[in-house]
């Protein structure tokens, strides 16, 4: 009888040890995954903001490119632009350097697209040596298209749409309305209320950023580009 109880206790102890071990391993894995997601998210945020900054600087309506409209001859442009080109080349080369340093957190296809984008920035400046606004604008349009492709691929990789739906659901469930009141609200009205809550949350975070100089919790690149 005592031997049976001892064996039973040993089995229970082994099961408990197994559960504790599995829990520790599971929690450790979850912590690692959470940290990896945070690093990945921060990397995306940093790179897409840098890509957008490059896009604003490499614009035919920004200096030094906009001066092409005032310069009347190809010879004048060829004398003017090379003096400015070195600084403009640094934008693309600097972006590529940053991408390669952070590429460990990026899926291969998105890392390659970022590299393609940085090289297109360099190609944009190279094309500006030609006294041809049509050629410059053509490359600029390609930059915009590639930028939008990047933002949509980032959204897909981070599953932003799924997170957005989950967020809407959680906000609505957290509203302290009882079941009876909920059933009386039309579905279209519920959607309007959810959108209003999300907008209010964004505005509040934006104000906090202005006051405290902290990052907005909902980054701008979550906005969907079609």
Written description of the protein model:
- By secondary structure, the protein is mainly alpha-helical.
- It has two domains: 2-158; 161-226, no CATH class.
- The chain is built from seven helices and no strands.
- The chain has helices at residues 2-57, 74-102, 108-127, 133-158, 160-174, 179-183, 187-212.
- α3 packs antiparallel against α4 (133-158) and α5 (160-174) crosses α7.
- The longest helix has 56 residues, at 2-57.
- The protein is elongated and about 100 Å long.
- It starts with a helix and ends in a 14-residue tail after the last helix.
- The model is unreliable at 176-182 and 211-226 (pLDDT under 50).
Q: What is the element string, with H for helices and E for strands?
A: HHHHHHH
Question: Structural class of the secondary structure composition?
Answer: mainly alpha
Q: Biggest sheet, in brief?
A: none
Count the E strands: 0
Short description:
The chain is mainly α and 226 residues long. The longest helix has 56 residues, at 2-57.
SSE arrangement:
Elements (H helix, E strand, L loop, with lengths): L1 H56 L16 H29 L5 H20 L5 H26 L1 H15 L4 H5 L3 H26 L14
Features:
mainly alpha, 78% helix, elongated
């Amino acid at each position: 009888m005592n031997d049976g109880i001892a064996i039973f206790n040993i089995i229970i102890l082994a099961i408990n040890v197994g559960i504790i071990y599995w829990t520790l391993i599971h929690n450790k894995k979850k912590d690692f995954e959470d940290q990896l997601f945070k690093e990945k998210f921060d990397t995306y945020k940093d790179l897409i903001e840098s890509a957008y900054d490059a896009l604003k600087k490499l614009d035919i309506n920004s200096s030094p490119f906009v001066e092409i409209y005032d310069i009347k001859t190809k010879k004048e442009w060829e004398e003017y632009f090379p003096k400015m080109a070195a600084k403009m080349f640094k934008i693309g080369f600097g972006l590529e350097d940053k991408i390669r340093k952070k590429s460990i957190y990026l899926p291969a296809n998105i890392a390659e697209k970022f590299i393609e984008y940085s090289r297109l920035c360099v190609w944009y400046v190279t094309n500006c040596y030609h006294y041809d606004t049509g050629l410059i604008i053509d490359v600029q349009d390609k930059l915009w298209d590639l930028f939008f492709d990047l933002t949509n691929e980032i959204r897909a990789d981070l599953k932003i749409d799924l997170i957005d739906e989950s967020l809407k659901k959680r906000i609505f469930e957290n509203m302290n309305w009882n079941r009876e009141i909920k059933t009386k609200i039309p579905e279209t009205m519920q959607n309007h209320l959810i959108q209003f809550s999300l907008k209010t949350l964004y505005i509040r975070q934006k104000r906090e950023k202005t006051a405290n100089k902290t990052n907005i919790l909902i980054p701008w690149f979550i906005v969907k580009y079609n």
